[in-house]
């Protein structure tokens, strides 16, 4: 009798569990991906006014990173900000400091005005190579890891374009743009750009034959 009651109870419990599962099914893979995309979009929106500065040696900012960036950026890019350069916050990345001789940690700055951030990006693109006290400085958007990984897939293309001194831009989130005589050309898939040395050369021949504007 007890065994029968136990089996009946287990069947009832299993039936209740199945009913609850039908009423509240687990998220599908597509739903999870959609939520991840929304979360990633929110992350990037929150970083919209941020920039990452690579190359400033450790300790050059002293005890006030914000004041250092406010002073260094206008001189680095030769920019006269109409309303002055205002920064909400600035700090080194929270990664552990590397030993001497290793690349320094990046400095992340959040600018109060988006137009100042854009002015810095445009000036850096026009100047090309940036130098501060003998150190090469590079400026990048502060993107989420997902977007950063997508942009990194274009690194082979970018290296070849730099070697050939072609002007290009990498737009958000990951769009490689070339200005050709017949118009603007965009690449959203790095596989159509460079995936090997051979295809890279073929791709550069395609670009060279169309002459950059």
From TrEMBL:
It comes from the Eukaryota. InterPro entries: Transposase_22. This is L1 transposable element RRM domain-containing protein. It comes from Salarias fasciatus (Jewelled blenny).
